[in-house]
Amino acid sequence: MTRFNRREFLKTLATGSAALLALRFTSGCEFVDVETFGTAGATPFVTPQDDGVWFWQSGNSIAKEDAPDIAADDWRLTITTGDQELGALTYQQLRELGAEGEELTYFKTLRCVFSLNLGPLLTSLIANGLFTGVPLAAVLDAIAIPQDAVKIRTFGADGFTSNIPLERLTSEDQLPVMLAYELNGEPLSRLRGGPVRLIIPEMWGYKNMKWLERLDFTASDEAFGVYETVRFRGVESIDAPGKMALANHTITLAGRSATLEGPDVTIVGVAVSGDAAITEVRFSVDDGPEEQADLLGDDADEVRQSLSPALQTLMADAAQSDDEWPLPNVWVRWSATLEGLSPGSHTLTVRAFDSQGRAQQLDTGDPLTVAQAVRVPFEISG
Ligand SMILES: Nc1nc2c(c(=O)[nH]1)N[C@H]1C(S)=C(S)[C@@H](COP(=O)(O)O)O[C@H]1N2
Ligand SMILES: [Mo]
């Protein structure tokens, strides 16, 4: 089996177009099956969860048709420590906890770590929605957690595995990890990991276990999970803390060399950072002076007005307050107008900045913390 190690990963980052093949990427016995983002151009703030609009990815090499199909009544979460069962939870019990006042809703941008090597080449592998569920900590209240536990190993019904550091559950400056059963006010669909998936606000896609079926408490701090130990073997931050990098997707150009009609061109994109808010997006053409892109809907009212009445109601329940915008872990859409472009070849550079003082650069030390600035060639037709 070929291992997707850090060196290969960094090498793939450097080789632009070869990564397009990664649409159906094969490394040894594994592959990633990715669907492209449905719409280019106007990206709604809230992505519908529908197949082909919200992205699909199997980190565990299964085709969509083979995604677990679990009826809500059949869903059961088993909580273990090794061979010993500590407890179990049915869908109905989870919903009851929700109805008893434990329910919470928040915006979360889900982003696959493979966006880094597909890089600006694809606009897919990122989506944003309002997840509703019950904090995992509330479910664990009734469980005698082993004193020496440091990690929770997580298991999906398709065989995918990952983990969460136990201390994450008690961190008070972050939104709680949730057992989510709704997305955008609708039951979580089969492809999105329904009936119940884990949602962790600041973490990469692979930590957000779909079709969750087991949580196992362990005293072992060893890396655990398909991504943690196979696909990204040896990449430390992939295990813990597993936070999404500061990154930006330039949607209009989608990373491909495109021919556009000048002299003025409007481009759009999205930027996100794990555990931080996007504060600024800057662009430059042909390495000229940098200018600020407009952050769209970077206040709560603007976003609210763009939503359907049902989503507006749901947004009113969101744990993120109106004063916090732009939100940590949630994308910001941006737009910029490139003016007075002459016919011929140009290069666009876009970089995002976050509330923890991070800035994208052309050459960044650790792409898992700060992704490289987007750099795209394009043509203006004559
Ligand atoms: N059970 C299970 N959960 C999983 C995966 C998986 O293959 N199986 N893939 C992970 C990865 S790598 C990503 S990016 C997201 C994708 O979620 P989505 O298909 O809802 O967009 O789910 C994560 N959770
Ligand atoms: Mo992923």
Automatic annotation (TrEMBL):
Gene3D superfamilies, alphabetized: 2.60.40.650, Oxidoreductase, molybdopterin-binding domain
Organism: Lujinxingia vulgaris
Name by which UniProt lists this protein: Molybdopterin-dependent oxidoreductase
GO MF annotations in UniProt: heme binding; molybdopterin cofactor binding; sulfite oxidase activity
Listed GO biological process terms: sulfur compound metabolic process
Domain spans labelled Oxidoreductase molybdopterin-binding: 67-221
InterPro entries from the UniProt entry: Ig_E-set, Mopterin_OxRdtase_euk, OxRdtase_Mopterin-bd_dom, OxRdtase_Mopterin-bd_sf, TAT_signal
Residues making up the signal peptide according to the UniProt record: none
